[in-house]
């Protein structure tokens, strides 16, 4: 994946291109993995699947660059390194995010992504929906609003917020394979719905119990800001129980695929056992 991302960015020059390369290094690559595995389950050529896998990584990377800005979460550390606005400046960070987002959509629109233009158009449409004002951006906006709200969010409101902020891109990633194969997206949608929420609960748990060196970012920010989280509402043990139940739910959704989906089952288990 890293080699493909570097090859896609390689023709670009200048400081923004340098910051794009910097931003796309490291990370868990969970979303790209979900694209590649869901494609494999549906017999999609990996040479095609690598393009939407790279595209979702670029969308995710852009979201992190913007999320780290002073006007958003104001973080100076990401993946164990200085954030883009710290290493360069805020203008560079904004433009780097913009460039990564547009390059992601370019990658989906390329003929190398799929031979059928209708499939490519569907990938572009669904990614726009997942990443935009009814998906990730909506979740980010709700998160910002929650920081200044007089009343803390309820559990249902936090679930709705995270369904956009984190869940939408994870859902798109898992559904990319059947979308490319023109197959039923239902089982992988259900899998990713549970997986995405388990992932965010695990993040909230790590924010309390994790180590900054392993996490590669600042921890305990939500608690210091007085924000409601899954841990603050459910308690640590309750949040851990909820995450485990969601992983079981995700694994159950993979039943139609039999043993071929074992890698996706392992990914679900990994989500709540990781330390970063």
Using the 3D structure, state the CATH architecture. Orthogonal Bundle
Number of domains: 1
Percent of sequence in beta strands: under 5%
Largest sheet, in brief, is: 2 strands, antiparallel
Q: Name the strands of the widest sheet in spatial order.
A: 1-2
Give the radius of gyration.
Answer: 18 Å
Rounded to the nearest angstrom, the distance between the terminal CA atoms is 20 Å
CATH topology name, in short, is Farnesyl Diphosphate Synthase
**Nearest-integer average pLDDT:** 94
Q: What's the CATH class, please?
A: Mainly Alpha
What structural class do helix, strand and pairing data support? mainly alpha
Determine the number of helices (DSSP H or I, runs of at least 4 residues): 15
